[in-house]
């Protein structure tokens, strides 16, 4: 069970919004607490709660892209428009509703590679979507606004490192024109249905930009989160190209490393896991350790 002040806060938001719109939230299960809180209601609806009302335009874009892709036959989760067809703001957080997808087994990186190739082959939708111009913007904001979880030395190091990586990002040359990006194309955001078909979920990071940003997540998964070399090879074959052959690969992996600490800076004050994971990630980054294992949930007892 996920515990802590942050979990208590998002449960409060869930129940308040449910009471406001007449949706039963009693008995809801908190499935995940990372950049978003993800709940499953007893009715089977998925509720996503994110951190700031500033994201309402971005969440509206995610809902619109998911609907547009479904109409085009792309395998995406569907918004639960019968409950609310737009984000709902409450007490500084934003709530969206999605149809539940019953799952069977864990998807493979091969499936992820295929579905990302399908996504990147889509045209850019005919409505406004943000351009991915600064992937470290949210990390930069967290460093400035969450000073209580960082020492002065850590903040100074992070500021300098983010500035350096942002300059290197701006000098990268993509292998092709901008494409429709999922924005967080990690394998945990791929769901395999009972019929064996996989669908993509979590469209909060949708953008238009270089395809390499979607691809790097899987390679970074080998570096930090336990994916194997075979997993990455299968992904590359399924997608049809291998990011490791791109001249900007090393820089993008370093940017992805920095990106991956942002959520824990934001959550550390209220989430016990983030409070423990943040020092682990910061320590490996400041030491230049490119192979240290990071975790998405509490590691087994005795693992540091």
Short structural description:
By secondary structure, the chain is an alpha+beta fold. It has helices at 5-21, 56-71, 109-120, 137-145, 152-170, 212-224, 229-239, 249-259, 262-267, 272-286, and strands at 29-33, 37-40, 46-50, 88-90, 93-98, 179-181, 190-192, 198-200, 207-209.
Which key features would you list for this structure?
304 residues; alpha+beta; Phosphorylase Kinase, domain 1; 2 domains; 5-stranded antiparallel β-sheet; two-stranded antiparallel sheet; 10 helices; 12% strand
Q: What does the model show?
A:
The structure is a single chain. The chain is α+β, with helices and mostly antiparallel strands. It has helices spanning 5-21, 56-71, 109-120, 137-145, 152-170, 212-224, 229-239, 249-259, 262-267, 272-286, and strands at 29-33, 37-40, 46-50, 88-90, 93-98, 179-181, 190-192, 198-200, 207-209. A hairpin with a 5-residue loop joins β2 and β3 (46-50). The longest helix has 19 residues, at 152-170. The two termini are 21 Å apart. 36% of the residues are buried. The model has no long low-confidence stretch (mean pLDDT 94).
């Amino acid at each position: 069970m996920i515990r802590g002040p942050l979990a208590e806060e998002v449960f409060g938001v869930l129940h308040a919004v449910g009471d406001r719109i007449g949706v039963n939230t009693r008995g809801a299960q908190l499935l995940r607490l990372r950049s978003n809180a993800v709940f499953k209601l007893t009715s089977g609806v998925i509720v996503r709660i994110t951190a700031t009302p500033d994201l309402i335009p971005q969440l509206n874009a995610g809902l619109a892209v998911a609907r547009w892709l479904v109409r085009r036959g792309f395998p995406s989760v569907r918004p639960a428009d019968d409950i609310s067809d737009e984000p709902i703001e409450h007490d500084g957080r934003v709530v969206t509703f999605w149809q539940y997808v019953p799952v069977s087994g864990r998807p493979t990186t091969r499936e992820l590679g295929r579905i990302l190739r399908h996504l990147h082959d889509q045209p850019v939708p005919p409505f406004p979507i943000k351009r991915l111009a600064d992937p470290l913007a949210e990390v930069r904001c967290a460093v400035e606004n969450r000073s209580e979880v960082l020492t002065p030395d850590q903040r100074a190091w992070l500021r300098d490192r983010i500035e350096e990586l942002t300059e290197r990002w701006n000098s990268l040359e993509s292998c092709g024109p901008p494409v429709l990006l999922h924005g967080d194309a990690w394998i945990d955001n791929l769901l395999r249905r009972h019929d064996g078909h996989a669908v993509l979920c979590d469209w909060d990071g949708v953008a238009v930009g270089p395809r390499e940003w979607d691809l790097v997540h899987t390679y970074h998964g080998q570096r930090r989160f336990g994916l194997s070399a075979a997993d990455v090879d299968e992904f590359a074959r399924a997608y049809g190209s291998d990011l490791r052959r791109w001249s900007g690969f090393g820089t993008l992996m370093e940017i992805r490393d920095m990106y991956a600490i942002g959520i824990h800076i934001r959550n550390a004050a209220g989430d016990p896991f983030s409070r423990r994971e943040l020092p682990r990630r910061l320590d490996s980054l400041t030491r230049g350790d490119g192979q240290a294992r990071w975790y998405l949930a509490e590691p087994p007892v005795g693992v540091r």
